[in-house]
Amino acid sequence: MQTNSKHIFIIAKDFSSCPGGRAISTGDYSAELLYTKHLKPLFRKIVDANHLLLIDLDGTQGYAISFLDEVFGRFTTDFTQKEMSLLKVKSNEDPELLAGIQDCVKEWFERGPHPNSPLSKINSRN
Fold first, then answer.
1. pLDDT at 119
2. Domain limits for position 43
3. What is the spatial distance between Cα 7 and Cα 34, in angstroms, rounded to a whole number?
4. Which of 33, 48, 69, 113 could make an S-S bridge to 117, C-beta 3.0–4.6 Å?
5. Distance CA 19, CA 16 (A)
6. 114 falls in which pLDDT band (50, 70, 90)?
7. How confident is the prediction for the chain on average, in pLDDT?
């Protein structure tokens, strides 16, 4: 099956130029909000259509590592590794972020959500 189209999500333009922390409870423009309200539904449609999603990290005031960990780690809870091959990330301004994101994704696949993730708190109540 051939991939036909690439969708670009620019965090600075499509979400916020000043991303916040990990959880909605920590303030505005959190990773939890970005993933649950924007990226998860968008990526589900993209996967179903066998398209590509490019997430552009450039143009913000910077990222907390917890923000990146939560956003990209959460993909592992809803999508397979094969589906995640349709997800690309770019940062011309800070290319070192990409290696950190790869490490976060690998850890979430191997160990599950980060202990500080809202998902860990939900799962620990069950």
1. 86
2. 6-125
3. 16
4. 113
5. 6
6. confident
7. 92
Nearest to 20 by CA among 66, 55, 56: 66
CB-CB neighbours of 34 under 10 Å: 23
Please say whether the dihedral angle defined by the alpha carbons of residues 30, 33, 39 and 40, taken in this order, is positive or negative: positive
Please determine, for residue 124, whether its predicted confidence score (pLDDT) is greater than 60. Answer: no
Residue 123 has what pLDDT?
A: 52
Burial class, 55, CB count within 10 angstroms (exposed 0-12 / middle 13-18 / buried 19+):
buried
Q: Say how many domains are in the chain.
A: 1
Residue found under tokens 């960990």: 69
Six token digits for residue 113: 């959500």
User: Is 68 strand, coil or helix?
Assistant: helix
Do the bridges between strand 6-10 and strand 87-90 make them parallel or antiparallel, or are there none, so unpaired?
Answer: unpaired
User: Bridge partners of 8?
Assistant: 54
